[in-house]
Amino acid sequence: MDISVVVPLYNEYESLPELVEWNKRVLEENGFSYEIILVDDGSNDSSWEVIEQLQQENYNIRGIKFRRNYGKSAALNVGFEAAQGDVVITMDADLQDSPDEIPELYRRIKEEKYDLISGWKKKRHDPLSKTIPTKLFNSATRKMSGIHNLHDFNCGLKAYRKDVVKSIEVYGEMHRYIPVLAKWAGFRKIGEQVVEHRPRKYGTTKFGLSRFVNGFLDLLSIFFVGKFGKRPMHFFGTMGVLSFFTGLIITIWLIADKLIQIAQHQKYRNVTDQPLFYIALVAIVVGFQLFLTGFVAELVSRNSAERNNYQIEKITPQPIHV
Asked: Distance of CA 286 to CAs 133, 142, 224, 237, 299, Å?
């Protein structure tokens, strides 16, 4: 199969017939073998009934329905698991993403050998309350991830090589950072394509202001797990040792200073009367706790079923001995 189009949706019954027909026209005009996977994220309108009707009219459509609303990341993850196409295209169901972009996205994945192409909605039809925070988050993500060539990490319109979607797990609010997940999984040929951003035709956005807080926390989580997931002691142990020795050095300095003042018959304060003593004490305790946290995390990591789960791209064929 050439293409799998994965569409997560929540209460989008009005746009589904038009979206499916648009995709069908583009895909068939270009001679692609395809499937359209519609993942209903627990809609409470008639979205599922519309999906069932569309599936009866077109056998290339597959529907998946959640019992309740789990979020866009969960819908994408399930869609990725179900996808069978060599190239996987994701898009939102609100008609703000144009299926006309699919042939060029497919060509770049197949001919230019990209692992992932992310859309860039250079000209947006969103209010400033959404565009300004989005620019700030994109800037922070570029700096933390090292993926400097992407302007819009959260664009719903993306194209992936099949190996990419089968190698990553999307959860929480991490659909915003799929390029980062792909990079941590070893897929480094990541490109960008300017795409059309159309005004929303039906309904309203399903995301509130909380997405920015959750998104930032998930970015920190991705950064930490990707860098220290298999060696947590390197992070907690280093921070713990630094904190412990900082407190220890301050304590030694306070004691030495007191002894010098006694030897010189100068007026002195007790060590416990000085604020630095309590700072040193806290640093020592925190350092010890961080070291223990790293030790426990290391034990958990070593006993995890995923401890030796590594992405293998190729294996040379076994030679035949005659």
From this structure: 34, 32, 20, 11, 20
Q: Which amino acid is at 192?
A: E
Residue 54 C-beta-side C-alpha neighbours within 13 Å? 27
Residue 63: the pLDDT is 94
Taking CB atoms within 8 Å and a gap of at least 24, the contacts of 136-141 are: 137/176, 137/212, 137/215, 137/216, 137/219, 140/216, 140/219, 141/177, 141/180, 141/219
Backbone φ and ψ for 35, nearest 5 degrees, come out as -140, 150
Cα distance between residue 305 and residue 154, in whole Å: 31
Amino acid letter, residue 166: K
- Measured CA to CA, the distance from residue 204 to residue 153 in angstroms comes to 21
Rg (CA), the chain: 27
Torsion 114-106-17-203 (CA) sign: positive
Element containing residue 9 per DSSP (H, E): strand 3-9
pLDDT per residue as tens digits for the range 64-76: 999 999 889 899 9
Distance CA 160, CA 171 (A): 18
Distance CA 2, CA 35 (A): 9
User: Pick from 20, 147, 8, 12: which is nearest to 80 by CA?
Assistant: 8
The model's pTM: 0.73
